[in-house]
Amino acid sequence: MMIKALPVLSLLLLLPVSAFAEEVPTPPTMSEVLASSSPSDWQRLDPDKALVLDLPGGRVIMALAPEFAPEHVANIKALVAERFYDDLVVVRSQDNYVVQWGDPAEDPEDRKPVKKARATLEPEFDRSSSDDLPVTLLEDGDAYAPQVGFAGGFPVAADPESGRMWLTHCYGMVGVGRDVALDSGNGGEMYVVIGHAPRHLDLNVTLVGRVLQGIEVLSTLPRGTGPLGFYEAPEQFVEIASMRLGSEIPQSEWQDLEVLRTDTPTFEALIESRRNRHESWFAAPTGRIGLCNVPLPVREMAD
């Protein structure tokens, strides 16, 4: 009995679709991206650009951003040099918003005097976009700005039409408090974002950096009982032991940190790993990410 040969096309139709599918490797997870990073993907924190806040609950280390707010950073350094912050207090801890420190005296005449630093500064809400600070843009869009991304290790927004860019109020960002007058802030009153990103503050307050280590020291402080989370009684205040530059901390007490650069293919791979999460726990990889949901890794340098 002769067996009739099936047409080639019929045979192909009998094969599973997987036989024709090209093997597409699963993108790496964030931990895999970091594990495969090279030393050049990381940048050591300059101790002279590090602000160290010591509170009873521990130490907070912040990276300053002179590329975005040079006058404010210089003035904060001047205030540190005259020990302005020592013996001031945390005056506010508002749930899902900010922790703020400064002088609790209500009357400006009773507040701690500024010796050599400037008492007021013009705002530095934004800066010009330029090639000296390249931006790694997100393609996912944003509700608050035409473009968003990362520059110099910080989350930023930009407007290509005006040629301006600015730091954004993501979790852990450090800002300078002010009154209604735009030039009423000098760095003597500062805050850190400890809640959902209050992006409506962008372009309204000067941002000067971000917390790299010790955010839990601030985010776990007792919440203020007054309006906007202000502490109502002196016994609620959290005293500042000191605020110093990293370069002033004795080497025996200092742990060098390095931050993942935001202008490398490794950082782009990290963004993709967070945009499409392939860890086994995730049922839906999402396919998009918001600016303030992209982590900015920090690690301690080996001795």
Describe the structure.
The protein is of the alpha+beta class and 303 residues long. It has 5 helices and 17 strands. The protein has helices at residues 8-14, 30-35, 70-81, 215-219, 265-275, and strands at residues 42-44, 50-55, 58-64, 89-93, 98-102, 127-128, 136-137, 147-151, 154-159, 164-167, 173-176, 190-193, 207-213, 238-239, 242-245, 257-260, 298-300. The strands form 3 sheets. Strands 14-4-5-12-11-13-3-2-15 form a 9-stranded antiparallel beta sheet. Strands 6-10-9-8-7 form a 5-stranded antiparallel beta sheet, with no helix packed on it. The longest helix is centred in the N-terminal third of the chain and has 12 residues, at 70-81. 34% of the residues are buried. The mean pLDDT is 92.
List keywords for this structure.
single chain; 303 residues; alpha+beta; five-stranded antiparallel β-sheet; 5 helices
Protein topology:
Elements lengths: L7 H7 L15 H6 L6 E3 L5 E6 L2 E7 L5 H12 L7 E5 L4 E5 L24 E2 L7 E2 L9 E5 L2 E6 L4 E4 L5 E4 L13 E4 L13 E7 L1 H5 L18 E2 L2 E4 L11 E4 L4 H11 L22 E3 L3
Antiparallel strand pairs: 1-16, 2-3, 2-15, 3-13, 4-5, 4-14, 5-12, 6-10, 7-8, 8-9, 9-10, 11-12, 11-13, 16-17
